[in-house]
Prior knowledge:
The complex is a heterodimer.
Chain A: E1 3-8, H1 12-15, H2 20-27, E2 33-39, H3 45-57, E3 62-67, H4 70-83, E4 91-95, H5 97-101, H6 107-126, E5 135-137, E6 141-145, H7 149-160, E7 164-168, E8 183-184, E9 189-190, H8 191-204, E10 208-211, E11 214-222, E12 225-232, H9 247-251, E13 271-272, E14 284-285, H10 291-295, H11 300-304, E15 317-323, E16 325-328, E17 332-334, E18 351-353, H12 354-361, E19 382-389, H13 405-419, E20 424-429, H14 439-448, E21 453-456, E22 459-465, E23 468-475, E24 480-486, E25 488-493, E26 495-497, H15 501-508, E27 535-537, H16 547-564, E28 569-571, E29 577-579, H17 589-593, E30 599-604, E31 607-612, H18 622-626, E32 632-634, H19 639-650
Parallel strand pairs in A: 1-2, 1-3, 3-4, 6-7, 6-16, 7-10, 16-27, 18-25, 19-20, 19-25, 20-21
Antiparallel strand pairs in A: 5-28, 8-9, 11-12, 12-15, 13-14, 17-26, 22-23, 23-24, 29-32, 30-31
Helix pairs in contact in A: 2-6, 3-4, 6-19, 7-8, 7-16, 12-13, 13-14
Chain B: E1 11-16, H1 20-29, E2 38-43, H2 51-59, E3 64-69, H3 80-94, E4 105-109, H4 115-132, H5 140-153
Parallel strand pairs in B: 1-2, 1-3, 3-4
Bound molecules: iron/sulfur cluster (2 copies).
Amino acid sequence: MRIGVFVCHCGSNIEGTVDTAKVAETSKDFPGVAFATDTMYACSEPGQEGIINAIKEHDLDGVVVASCTPRMHEPTFRRTLERAGLNRYLFEMANIREHVSWIGRDREANTNKAIDLVRMAAAKLLNDQPLESKQFSINKRVMIIGGGVAGIQAALDCADGGLEVVLVEKTTTIGGKMAKLDKTFPTVDCSSCILGPRMVDIAQHPNITLYAASEVEEVGGYVGNFDVKIKKKATYVNWDACTGCGLCTEKCPSKKADDPFNEELGKTTAINIPFPQAIPKKAAINPDFCMKIQKGKCGVCAKICPSNAIDYEQKDEFVTESVGAIVAATGFDLFDWTVYGEYGGGKYPDVITSLQYERMLSASGPTGGHVKRPSDGKEPKNVVFIQCVGSRDKSVGRPYCSGFCCMYTAKQAILTKDHIPDSQSYVFYMDIRSPGKMYDEFTRRAQEEYGARYVRGRVSMVYPKGENLMVRGADTLMGGQVEVEADLVVLAVGAEAAKGASGLAEKLRISYDSYGFYMEGHPKLKPVETNTAGVYLAGSCQGPKDIPSSVAQGSAAAAKVLGLFSKDQLASDPQISQVNIKRCIGCGKCISTCPFGAIKEIDFRGMKKAEVIETVCQGCGICTSTCPQGAIQLQHFTDNQILAEVNAVCRF
Amino acid sequence: MPVLEGKELRIVGFLCNWCSYGGADTAGVGRFTQPTDLRIVRVPCSGRIDPMFIVKALLNGADGVLVSGCHPRDCHYAEGNFYARRRLEVLKRFLPFIGIEPGRFEYTWVSASEGQRWQQVVTGFTEQIHKLGPAPKIEGADAEATLKLLEAAL
Ligand code: SF4
Ligand code: SF4
């Protein structure tokens, strides 16, 4: 093999702490190396042209580029090789930026390390084989997990693009957090008026199948051909029959069930439709509060239901859907505000969360849109908002900014004035963060037009005084302590990863960060992709987002799916395992360890042998390290290739 | 030419592409300074790591071997790291029998977002290897015999 080595300066990123000329010079002595040079920006157009010219001029048949991480530019340089007429797998990268120049300060040590990494890459390359991809067909259906505003957007965009869409929502209605909001910032649009029609579109779209009250149980397969097992949770109501008339909910005598839609403000009936615009508009029984299910008595709803839809015996059901791509849009949950004992969270009834307040402001909420203190139902005059509850606070493990709380607090201060003209709002804040379009103007309006008093400083304590609450905090602008008497305290709770998000990530084989938010493929350039081909992200599952960003991401994810499906065939990754039939003794160990069921037993002239199913193999190589005979080898990561690297680094 | 005689030792790292290699990249992007002794071999999954790679590295002159994969349950390939954990645990207990100090080999889990953790892991392991000093040489026939023994055992 005639290897060419290209050592990249990456401007000063690498050259600053690595003597790239020396690395190139030294690598000329490595086995197989016929040409070596350093280059300013290997990935740039002139850089790639330089590689192509060198391949032709020096008759090279393998290339090592020493530059940044292969997780960034391996595909780039593989394409470069192809343009020069070489097989794309006769290429290796030495990561001398992330793993060398950016982490070490000593130029000599760095240069030596870079030389070693090039030596390893060249040694592996000597063992590389040309590999060819195969084509396989795609199932052009898409599954969206999560029916919040991001999932709704993604589903509608995909469906309008002509795709069959399967939308899976774990609660009994789509709409997510947005459906619970009264108004949206900075337009003070009525939330359900803009979301409601979109929810109806979901229900009526001929291309969309909606599974509400359902959860993803298992994910199998790979890009283009996923099989997803869905659990349809028992609702104890036959939804094919239920017309959503709501008679049952009027007559149900058990009125103490939790009401998650209203954020547990007040109670609801055991059989319930969460809100008038719910989609699907179907009743569901909360079995914990149903007297028929608990005690065998009652059965009122079954008697009253005009369509005979009640089924107390209903069980969870499982269905499997085959799709070619998956969009995760599982949203967020609110931070557990009771952790802040000093704010009286969970202790004083008149300390509530922002989302509870939102339900109170909503005409379809538990108070019919009247602002009332939970303790005595009186209209509050002084309302104190405390920001950053579970945001930007290292001590509760939430050092990040949730991003939207400043804005919804301003909105709620404005709405408070609209509801109760003689009221006064106070907002305790750290900084006001309002970087969106018309956002800063909006927070100013809250102060200037609606007279909300903004106090810059943290609240140290909320304590009761008679019927009211005293809020004590710092005013860092005035440089002193302030105390405000409040009728109602609203905590602007921050966002955290949805409960169960990590479990779903494991099923989808995507990564999540230390806070549980899903990780995008690249923080700048792949915001809705994941590292698993065919799995995309939309909305707050990736990090806290407001409605416009969630919608934008929903559309972006849909665009990615439509792009993926614009081809009829996908090229398979040839970095998969292959069985050397002569060495295989048919022990079947690989078959039982492969997590994807990608190996089958075959009969070869009367002998048992293993065979890899090419489209199913994911290229993990677990089989290769399992096989006692070394018979099944993961292409491009064979034993010989890895040992060549090990030897290159150890024998010097 | 040996690297900085007396200062640097030879440490081989086997890292899975999805989590730990990404974590090492994150550490680089974040400019988390680390000792330079480690050379990383990228593999798709920690489950791809054959314990023989580690033994061969140690017999061939590595002073230390570090393996890192995705956190259990967070594997890109569903369960590769569980296989890895079983194999590597067995290997760790086996090393003293072939005359290799067990401290020369460690395995750990680092995710792609944990740049800082990677810095700590590398720094800690490098210090540990420097405390043990250069590995005693296991030569020719001895090494062959050890490998034979191992092939049989693993
Ligand atoms: S590399 Fe082996 S274990 Fe991994 S998916 Fe392919 S056949 Fe299965
Ligand atoms: S483990 Fe190896 S020998 Fe056994 S069946 Fe699989 S390929 Fe054949």
